[in-house]
């Protein structure tokens, strides 16, 4: 069987959402190898995705990158791909499978790359001219490309992206880091406190202090953007463990998978937490969760009340009491031994 290529989005959260489309493709072509293309930063997550055989790198910052994309296309030509699904609709993305001579190149021609994209999903024109409330959210767009625009039954939900960390890998991570599997842990993902997506630092500290007082570990997860926030939290809660210097994003997946519950804000790491399948409470700004949030069913979203004015984009209207209640609800449902 000839393999299939999926050109995924480069940002971590968007890349994880692409796994919903990969599942649809795998269901349409059972047993057929599926390879993907994404950015270097997202690529380590590919090995945690069911159905993915191989990952290729296409750097987002190639400008214009014609030489690099032509070189990648030559390598792809050797793989004899049957079809390419272009979940990202840029001209630079569609150039690669076109140069590689892949017969079917499926996607939306949003930059009018007709010919380079030669198979269009049903309803592609309506999708291109949609705007405002009529614009399809990203999770639905990538699924529509994978299903060639065919709408599923109303009662059928979007496939939930999945990331799978093996029990052996998780046990090895715990052993290397001296983590007691019997002790519950709350993982906090704060983003940068100056970012409107974040939640006030003092509220994170207050909730974390409650859990630390009950014997829980408090883990601070993320990357370079979260390091200053982690330092501020540790200044108020020295017993918190700062994992934000982790150099490998796959290592960060172990941190989240090993935690008992995840509390975070809008961001790629929160999409990863949702895909890993553990209980999550996510704090979003007004009217953002439906459009930008993960579609995994175990995620609890907290947003400002509907009466909050629409111009208020930050998360301050989400109270500590609502967060504590949501965390308690998730723990009772998914980890009752720690309730």
Brief overview:
With 339 residues, the chain is an alpha/beta fold. 37% of the residues lie in helices and 14% in strands.
Please give the structural blueprint.
Elements lengths: L3 E4 L4 H17 L5 E5 L13 E6 L8 H12 L5 E4 L4 H9 L4 E4 L16 H6 L8 H9 L20 H11 L7 E5 L11 H13 L3 E4 L6 H10 L4 E2 L6 H10 L2 E5 L2 H9 L3 E4 L5 H4 L6 E4 L17 H15 L5
Parallel strand pairs: 1-2, 1-4, 2-3, 4-5, 6-7, 6-9, 7-8, 9-10, 10-11
Helix pairs in contact: 1-5, 1-10, 2-3, 6-9, 7-8
Descriptive overview:
The chain has about 350 residues and is α/β, with parallel strands linked by helices. It has helices at about 10-30, 65-75, 90-100, 125-130, 140-145, 165-175, 200-215, 225-235, 250-260, 270-275, 290, 320-335; strands at about 5, 35-40, 50-55, 85, 105, 185-190, 215-220, 240, 260-265, 280-285, 300. The strands form two sheets. Strands 8-7-6-9-10-11 form a six-stranded parallel beta sheet, sandwiched between helices. The chain has a five-stranded parallel beta sheet with strand order 3-2-1-4-5, sandwiched between helices. Helix 1 (about 10-30) packs parallel to helix 10 and helix 7 (about 200-215) packs across helix 8.
